[in-house]
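Final paragraph of the annual report: two paired records, presented back to back.
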Amino acid sequence: MAFLSKLQSQAQSSLLLKMSSKNIVLPMLALSAVSILSIFPNSIALANSCSKSDIDYYLQRGFTNAQVVQLCAGPAQTSGQQTQTYQAPAVQTQQYQQQNQAREDESYFNAALNAENVVINNEIISVLSEECIKHGPDSGSQAAADLIEKICVGTKININFSGMVVGKASKGFFLVKDPSVNIKGNIQRDLIGLNQLRRQDREIITEKLSKSPTSVSLKIRRGIDPSNVALRLRKYAK
């Protein structure tokens, strides 16, 4: 009887051990399955959200690997906080593209406009150049024409994008009139190096060149199509 009781006890212990092992293994399997399922959807979303060219584009623009992952995995996010995390790099991308476009246009205007320097920011385009006026008798005789003087001064023209109107683009006439684009709006003109001129020339310049003109003509270099310059400028009109 003692022998049978011992066998029965061993059998019960073995059964309990198997049941305990089963209780441990099943949750582990379930947890592994959940983990795998949680990984694969994100991987699929990442693959479907960004192509190789997209990834190369972001990396070339200076985004970190973590930001690229956020950009590509963005559509798979579900919570509001995760969506906000995704939107931030997208906004940064848009801002960078706008800034990059402004720098490209700034380089273009520096090459196209007959000016020493052109600067663009969010509000204005600033053009540093030289402006000249002709001063002398109004008579049409040759003697009067010989007395006409050309007075030049450095100017800095700030044109506000708000209210800017890009008008006529003129191709000009060779040796007579430079190609130009007419701009109207909120304009400020600073006279640079005015004190270096003769007193009478300073008086003429300040009389003829207003510090708050309603319109200006931006001179364009020869070989540049004025209509292309006007087209680029119109993008910034507000």
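The closing record of the year follows.
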Amino acid sequence: MMKVFNVVVLAVILLCSFSDEDKEVRLQRKDCELLRDMLTRKEGRLDIHVPQDSVSLVFDNLYSNLDVELPFIELYRQFGKVVSTIQCGHTRLWPSGRVFGEWNSERLSLPCDYVLVGKKLFVSDLVKEDKKKVNFGKRKSQQKNLPKNAEIIAIDGETVPEMMQRIGEFISSDENGIDFKYANATHLFEFFRNVAYRDRKDSIEVIYSAKRDTTSIYLFTGYPPINSIKKRLDNLETQSRKDLKNIGKYSVIKSKYAYFKFVSFYACHGAKYEKFLETSFKDISKKDIKKLIVDVRGNPGGQLQSSFMKYIVGSNKLLGKYEHNKSFKRFTNRHLQKNNAFYRNYKKSSRIIKRFKRKHPEYDSEIYTGYVDSDLIFEGEIIVITDEGSFSASSLLACHLKTLAKAKIVGQPAGGSFFCGNSGGLEMVLPYTKFSVMINPFTFWSHLPLQQNPQTIKQPDLFLEPINPKMGKKDDWFVTKAIQGFFIGK
């Protein structure tokens, strides 16, 4: 009797253990199926940059790979690769707290904080809470670190571009361009390096440059500088919120050069913005200025700039299309986050465009410049300054200025597409992994036909990259270099 009892107990224990494991596998796969379903139903065009068959294949492979319970970092790796396959920078995956928790507990990170400045890595300060933590358990003789503002040349034998090729597998960008991947990895490079490289090493060689000397040093791995990263991200979010309200700045440099600086296009619409543009271009016309600089470095986009472009190319000029191809429908939004401006705009704009199409069935989503006083149309030379963070509406503005007004591009290649993409910014949180996914129900197109190599057109006529991460008056530096490169002597 006792033997039978023991067998039954053992069977129950085994059954429970199998059941728990099966439950985790089911939940992983449920997130996979939900992500696929929501992207199919809500993403503007899944096949905008890659064939639909390719997207289906990576989802099939993801589902197959989820046949065992996986750590959350591994889940993030696999889900991230799938989302990046779509090649839409707006459609991206953000890790959950569980992923960051696993990263912290692994203790495989470098004992320093560093960020990308353009396409170079520079060491930044550790906050007080991290200075002891990152060297936890190390003897004083082992507590080595890198000097502040040192440039990191290579980590574990690989240069920054080589590491970015691996890191880029998990970061979304338009047309799979590398530039926007740099922009997204800026403040979390060490996190993404740990995601991309899964080797467990007690120490890592770092080659760095400081005070004109290049040095090699081995650093013991340990806890990541979570507090330093959090402080930086909090400051970045605070600044981003301010930037969202910014409608741009206009000035005249040396009585010769009109200069517009746009840090965001989110609020660049409506009566206040139209008045700003009109006043600015009236001043340009009155002072007979023939040289214009438009600075969109770090501008993540927002409103398409048909309002600005009318002062450049005139009225009724085709700029492209903006399709509401996955409009709001009831009972299909269960997993979307609803308490935010993007969801409310999705609902409102869908209603407006639906009503408009009923009255104008011939409407084909084309965007034209509006009416403008012909005396205010700018007819001089134009420079547009871009970098890896110039994305969405700002990269399209660069496209329009280059192709419709013969503008010269200065800086670094824009991170966003010059051709097309999905937008809309709907957020979904997957129930099990808690990964945040941005889904985009609308599709935009520029006036250009698609090209086989979409990165070529974005290459600057003059490449510029600051040499010092702490350099003051960076805007002045870029403007001065742009003027010296194209305007002086003309």
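The first helix runs from residue 2 to 42. This concludes the annual technical report; the extension proposal builds directly on these records.
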